[in-house]
Amino acid sequence: MLYTEYLKNMTTCPFCPGNKQRALVENEHAYLTYSLAPYHKYHLLVIPKRHVELFKDLKWQEHISIAALLSTGAKTLDTLGLDDCSVVAKGKYKTIPHLHYHIIPGGMITDISLDTEMRTLLSKKDIEALEKELKTQLTLVQ
User: 140 in a domain, yes or no?
Assistant: First the structure.
């Protein structure tokens, strides 16, 4: 399914607390997961648990929790041989109005298209394999 179709059918915020079933790791204020419509196979996301749309509206403790998980995500990618990544924050004015951080393997963000038109959702089989692999790698960095 194309990501644009998924977005059209969305009725609730996919990142709010009731929807964090894909969390790989979490702390008090945020969680780390993978992208359902990735730019790269190992495209990770860090999401604040509280519904906040703008970076400037985060509380100090949320910044600390998010930074810790961004570091965990980058270290996890490193265990996969991906020692460079780009971090992009998106929120209110993007496809999902809940602040979230993309951790995308690769040196330059211009190496990938940030256009949502061609992104597709992972299959159930791909999700299961990716979750298993990422959980194994996370044990190496925690």
Answer: no
φ/ψ of residue 62, rounded to 5:
-70, -40
Asked, for residue 142, whether it belongs to a domain, the answer is no
Residue 68: which residues within 8 A CB-CB, separation 6 or more?
27
What are 94-121's pLDDT values in tens digits?
Answer: 778 899 999 999 865 655 555 556 778 8
What is the DSSP track for 89-124? EE-TTSSSSS-EEEEEESS-GGGS---STT-BPPPH
Determine the residue type at 136: T
What pLDDT, on a 0 to 100 scale, did the predictor assign at position 26?
Answer: 94
CATH of the domain at 125: 3.30.428.10
Q: How far is Cα 3 from Cα 119, in angstroms, rounded to an integer?
A: 5
